[in-house]
Amino acid sequence: MADLLSDDEIESGLPDEWERVDDEIVRVYEFDDYLEGVAFASEVGELAEEEFHHPTIEIRYDEVEVRFTSHEAGGITEDDLNMAELTDDLR
């Protein structure tokens, strides 16, 4: 199990456009239409399966919200920051 990161480690390691909300890191991606967002969410799902680290994904009409946390550790770990970067790479 990965170790929880300190507040400073989270702040310094958080990729651009991601924010911390309590024990999660969150980003909202914007799209031109619904199906483009659905396709992106599917790609995030495939990545999550490959990395075995699964986010909460909320699909809206023109945006997709992605949230990462390490439930087994009880908060934010290096795994979450890594997944945020990999998710950004999908765009």
From TrEMBL:
Catalytic activity: (4aS,6R)-4a-hydroxy-L-erythro-5,6,7,8-tetrahydrobiopterin = (6R)-L-erythro-6,7-dihydrobiopterin + H2O
Pfam family, one: Pterin_4a
NAD as UniProt keyword: no
Gene3D superfamilies linked: Transcriptional coactivator/pterin dehydratase
Biological processes, Gene Ontology terms: tetrahydrobiopterin biosynthetic process
Similarity comment: Belongs to the pterin-4-alpha-carbinolamine dehydratase family.
Alphabetized NCBIfam families for the sequence: PRK00823.1-2 (NF002017)
Protein name (Swiss-Prot/TrEMBL): Putative pterin-4-alpha-carbinolamine dehydratase
